[in-house]
Specification:
Length: about 400
Amino acid sequence: MSSPLQRRVRDWIAAPAYPWVTGGVVTAGAVAELIVIPAGVTTTVGVLVSAASLMWRRSFPPIAVLTVAAGLLGFAGDVNLYVSIMVSGLIGCYCLGRRRVLHPALTVAGGALGAVCVNLVHINTWSRMELPVPALWEKGSLSLFAESFLLTVVVFGAVMMGDAVRSREETRTERHLAQARMIAMERQQAAEAERAAIARELHDIVSHSVSMIAVQAESATYTTPGLTPEARDGFQQIAATARSSMAELRRLLGVLRTPQGEVALTAPQPTLDHIGELVEQHRAVGGVAELRITGERVPLPAAWELSAYRITQEALTNARKHAPGARTVVEVDYGAGRLLTLRVRDDGPGRGAGSGPGAGHGLTGMRERAALVGGRLSAGAGPDGGFLVEAELPWGSG
């Protein structure tokens, strides 16, 4: 755990103004140093360029090459080593390693070559100053290159420090990403476990109850004496509906138990081709129904096919519930403007799904299904009496 002071320092270093402030301070120090200790043109230019270029080291990291090169040039122009050159050179070498402008080995090699060049210039300057400078091939001449050795060590240290900081930050970032992936995985596993628990509850409670309904309805046709043919057919319809509900429930359980990101192997969804079966089922339980289809049948997207089927199914259910024995007409119109229109009307007393207490969920569900595919649904008294459900489902541009 880092202390609050360390966090404040890191936040200040990461601030956008940090390179401008530090670069400006070093430049101001270089100007003051040149005023106190004047230098030649080459050294003056090298000192000022090396210091001022630090202000752009974050927005344009390759400029650190200019920082180091200008510092070496300024040091080569004078035997005196200015403090501002030391500071800007160290920061420039650190930036080259931190931003990985070049491979660290190339950066150190370039710095060592520059140090040797500066050392050779100084050796030439010392000889012109009539100092006791041995020839390069004489004994003791290697001591003349101590300067280049020290400069190379300093460059190496600054570059390696920058590269080490960079590696540590990359490791920290990778660790945070790994933790984020682990948290996401744990959340996904928790969600899948919850889905599996819901699936178990549905299977253990609802599935058992529905299967009991199917068994009891089917066995009633054999165990109940004196049943009329109509009653026998009614029990068979109850059993068939229960078995159909069981199949739908198994499909839903399969979806719940399928891990996210995988495709559940489910049975094909009902389409408009199955509306005729809905009408036949309505007739089988004593209803009077007629199916009218106009326009050319075209295959629609799966969402539109399923929504149209469910709307028709719910409308017929409402007709059986609120207008038993009434004549129901189901109209399917494939419009020329890529508009599918569904109408389910009956000649009953005009009572809809919302007429009874606690009702209204059927109409709400139908409206939601229509809105899901960008359509609209209206329900109410028909123009000739009875009840009318009309849905318009646009499925594409004309």
